[in-house]
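Chain A, query sequence.
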Amino acid sequence: MQVGGVRQLRPGLFRYINGYFTGAQSMKRTTKMMVTAVVALGSTFAAFTASAAPPDAVTVAAAKTPADHEAIAKAYEDEAASFEKMAAMHKNLGETYTSQAGGKSVHAAQAKHCGSVATDLESAAKEERALAAEHHKLAKSAGK
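Chain A, predicted structure.
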């Protein structure tokens, strides 16, 4: 249909022919999922941009004083905290997918993925905390 030379969209255009969107309930559910995904992605990107950079090889090799080792330990602790925050976000997102599964395999796969990412991030955080502990020890021994 054209009005004033401009083609007007039909009201039902946003309902896919294959029946994916069949009514208001389906549209609401899809909108919820899309909002959840956007929030999760935004949180992930915010966590990546806010994450502390690990010390580089030059900084670690040049560390001689207690202050040097304490600074390195702090950097590892900051990175561990960032990993823990991202792990919590992925765990929460996985729980969201699990609660919305409704028998759809895509939701179950997403929940499994988020759980796996959360586990990996928690493991990385533990390793970062172990490195920080070692540098705290090195700081004490460098001070003697």
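The longest helix spans residues 105-142. Strands lie at 2-3, 6-7.
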